[in-house]
Design a protein that fits this description.
Strand order of the largest sheet: 14-13-12-15-16-17-18-19
Bound molecules: 1,4-dihydronicotinamide adenine dinucleotide
Radius of gyration: 28 Å
Family: In the central section; belongs to the 3-hydroxyacyl-CoA dehydrogenase family.
Low-confidence stretches: none
Pathway: Lipid metabolism; fatty acid beta-oxidation
Strand content: 5-15%
Number of strands: 21
Catalytic activity: a (3S)-3-hydroxyacyl-CoA + NAD(+) = a 3-oxoacyl-CoA + NADH + H(+)
Largest sheet: 8 strands, mixed
Protein name: 3-hydroxyacyl-CoA dehydrogenase
GO molecular function: enoyl-CoA hydratase activity; long-chain (3S)-3-hydroxyacyl-CoA dehydrogenase (NAD+) activity; NAD+ binding
Shape: globular
Helix content: 40-55%
Length: 727
């Protein structure tokens, strides 16, 4: 079983095909790289071979480096990482120089890449080392270097080559933001050379007629000048400063990978190409050895994939959904209907009025129209997806559904009524799920005649964009219901976490305190600008005030009222309520009302803070230290996550970390709250929590679990790492 094979044809073209056995997408391992190296040696030495085409046996070219290999390389320490990376550099440089005479630059063999579909990470770094890149005219394909998203950067020559191809500023969005493009856009940006109906045929034709000069990369030719100027020349320096500002603006410097990437670009631009590759490898090693990249790769790749593949799925036969009933065709129901129909599932979409059900279906049509305008879908696809959605008011249509997802008003009596109506017509084995965001599952299950088949499947808004789905087990929920929910989430290609029933489940339980802490600070007289910036500088995608504007102030008011009713005198958030109740009274309900903590223009674009904040809650003369604000905002979330673990709401810290990043954007560079607390170390965490508790109250009290860990010198991943249940 090999990852690469080679076929030489009568015209002298060697076709190297990448096709990793047993995988749906190619990923590069070090063994695979060694195979490719041997084939390239063979083809370069074989006089009968005139040119080489590297392609894939799958519908896509490659998803990138095998991140498990990266994780294991790290275990060998910095030198092993550096050596591994340099092996790749030697291979890609060999492809680039193609056996040509180093002095005359003649006699090399043309090598082209033919990409049938998606090409990411090393899947683009390898083509960048060839002499010409052809991609299929496949608008669904994604081409780019997304490494920065998992806390690393392109380290197999991608950084050095792209900067020399496009200039520092041209390469910046691809390197610093991990921007992906379809083939047409990738060609427009200069990422690839050609879009062709049959890229292998086009590449074959090209290698047969390519001349010696076609093989010499600009950076290997005399008098090479970097497009846009080298970063150390006056004009280029401005470019570099601009890119640095961009990194700081977007990530505010918390991502070590972005800083290392800029260093590699800047230092690499001053030296010859081969030296630049070594600099890139050194910075890459540096980043890979950083705890942030360890945590990001662990959460965003290894553990995310494990959860998607059913790491926490009970042992039960396949429960794939064929026909789903959705109750309530509002914002959430319509979104769930859309993603289900997209996944090939038949959908019955029920609302109390036919018109409302039709409107729910129209939401799907709107999303598909948008996709068509971006060439991401076709009219046929739209017709096919819409044909799967049946909008109706008739519960009898639920016959034959094996799953129902209820998304009617957040009102227990309405939910109880629709549960009974649905169960009256559903097959006996059907699973009933509720999308409630605030009501306890075990309470709602009381309306069900079969509570072991009743479960929470909690989506996030907007459903088509948000990757996380929280599955909630009620007291009586049985394993088959959990398996069904997990299989459904796999079908619609989202990432699941499974938690136990408790107030606000997991994600909302942690995010609400974050929002409240931000509002509480405003009430205390902390500058709102300081609050928002402190959060963003920690890597939170949205400050707490922007976040509450997005999710809406009236929802905040509703949650506050319900929590106060449930907690009575113990309710701790009176100070927060004063602020949001006031905003709500004035109709400042958030972005949807074009007025909230922020002002918005007519088009809904966010402007400055509402002036009423400054008059009702004037900024105090003395402002707190930035670190204190950051500790408050981050600890209030992370300690809540620990409590969820301690109380058994979370059973697996992997779900806690993955869920936090995908569900509410917990600073991704940290790998999630448990990874972040591990980076700080339990003793330091307890020390900070104690200081915050003394100053701001019991919401910062360190859970006993953390104190135990601090005493014993434990970490979360040491104690509960891969797959170990917390219970
Ligand atoms: P929505 O108000 O947009 O939609 C509710 C829909 O249910 C309406 O179309 C309404 O006509 C329909 N409906 C009400 N009673 C009905 C009945 N007896 N039979 C059939 N249809 C009925 O509400 P939204 O935002 O879609 O929320 C729905 C559920 O999802 C709620 O439980 C909410 O807590 C939950 N949820 C909401 C999120 C959000 O961000 N809005 C996020 C996650 C969950």
């Amino acid at each position: 079983m090999t990852d690469f094979t080679m076929q030489k044809d009568a015209d002298g073209v060697a076709i190297v095909t990448w096709d990793v056995p047993g995988k749906s997408m190619n990923v590069l391992s070090l063994d695979g790289a060694a195979e490719l190296n041997a084939l390239i040696d063979d083809a370069l030495a074989d006089e009968a071979v005139k040119g080489i085409v590297i392609t894939s046996g799958k519908k896509d070219f490659a998803a990138g480096m095998d991140l498990n290999v990266i994780a294991s390389m790290k275990e060998g320490g910095a030198q092993s990482v550096f050596d591994g990376v340099m092996t790749l550099h030697h291979l890609l440089r060999k492809i680039e120089l193609a056996g040509m005479d180093p002095k005359t630059k003649k006699g090399g063999k043309p090598i082209a890449a033919a990409l049938p579909g998606t090409a990411l990470g090393i899947g683009l770094e390898l083509p960048l080392a060839t002499h010409r890149i052809f991609a299929a005219d496949n608008p669904k394909a994604r081409i780019g270097l997304p490494e920065i998203m998992v806390g690393i950067f392109p380290g197999a020559g991608g950084t050095t080559r792209l900067v020399r191809r496009l200039g520092a500023m041209g390469a910046a969005p691809f390197l610093l933001e991990g921007k992906l493009s379809d083939p047409a856009k990738a060609k427009g940006a200069g990422l690839i050379d050609e879009v062709a109906a049959d890229p292998v045929a086009a590449a074959r034709e090209w290698v047969l007629k390519a001349s010696d000069t076609d093989l010499v990369k600009p950076w290997d030719a005399k008098g090479y000048k970097m497009p846009g100027g080298e970063p150390y020349h006056p004009a280029g320096y401005m470019t570099f400063v601009g890119a640095s500002a961009m990194v700081h603006g977007k990530t505010l410097g918390v991502y070590p990978a972005a800083k290392a990437l800029l260093s590699a670009v800047y230092e690499g631009a001053m030296v010859p190409f081969d030296t630049a590759l070594k600099i890139e490898a050194r910075w890459f090693t540096n980043v890979l050895m950083n705890p942030s990249s360890t945590a990001m790769i662990r959460s965003l790749f290894i553990n995310k994939e494990a959860l998607e593949k059913g790491a926490n799925r009970p042992d039960a036969p396949d429960q794939s959904v064929k026909k789903v009933g959705i109750l309530g065709a509002g914002m959430m129901g319509a979104g769930i209907a859309h993603v289900s129909a997209m996944a090939g599932i038949e959908v019955v979409l029920i609302d109390s009025a036919q018109e409302a059900a039709e409107r729910g279906k129209a939401h799907s049509a709107g999303l598909l129209d948008k996709a068509i305008s971006r060439r991401k879908a076709t009219e046929e696809k739209k017709a096919e997806v819409l044909a799967r959605i049946t909008p109706t008011t008739d519960y009898a249509a639920l016959q034959g559904c094996d799953l129902v997802v209820e998304a009617v008003f957040e009102d227990p009596s309405v939910k109880a009524e629709v549960t009974k109506k649905a169960e009256a017509v559903l097959p006996a084995e059907a699973i009933f799920a509720t999308n409630t965001s605030t009501l306890p599952i075990s309470e709602l299950a009381k309306a069900s005649a079969r509570p072991d088949q009743f479960i929470g499947i909690h989506f996030f808004s907007p459903v088509d964009k948000m990757a996380l789905v929280e599955i909630i087990k009620g007291k009586e929920t049985g394993p088959r219901a959990v398996a069904k929910a997990l299989d459904f989430v796999r079908q619609i290609r989202k990432t699941p976490i499974v938690v136990n029933d408790a107030r606000f489940f997991y994600a909302n339980r942690c995010i609400i305190p974050y929002i409240n802490e931000g509002i509480r600070m405003v009430a205390e007289g902390v500058s709102p600008v300081l609050v928002e910036n402190a959060a963003k500088m920690m890597g939170m995608p949205l400050g707490p005030l922007q976040l509450v504007d997005e999710t809406s102030i009236d929802l905040g008011v509703k949650i506050a009222r319900a929590t106060r009713a449930a907690m009575g005198d113990a309710y701790p958030d009176g100070a927060v309520d004063k602020v949001i109740f006031k905003l709500a009274e004035q109709g400042r309900l958030g972005r949807k009302a074009k007025a909230g903590f922020y002002d918005y223009d007519e088009a809904g674009k966010r402007q400055g803070f509402w002036s009423g904040l400054a008059s009702d809650w004037p900024e105090a003369d003395a402002q707190p230290e930035l670190t204190e604000i950051q500790h408050r905002l981050m600890f209030v979330q992370a300690l809540e996550a620990v409590r969820a673990l301690e109380q058994g709401v979370l059973e697996d810290i992997r779900e806690g970390d993955v869920g936090a990043i995908l569900g509410w954007g917990f600073a991704p560079w940290s790998g999630g709250p448990f990874s972040w607390l591990d980076m700080l170390g339990a003793p330091r965490v307890v020390e900070i929590a104690d200081a915050l508790e003394a100053k701001f109250g019991p919401r910062f009290a360190a859970p006993q679990l953390l104190r135990d860990m601090a005493t014993k010198g434990d970490s979360f991943y040491g104690r509960f790492g891969a797959g170990k249940k917390a219970a």
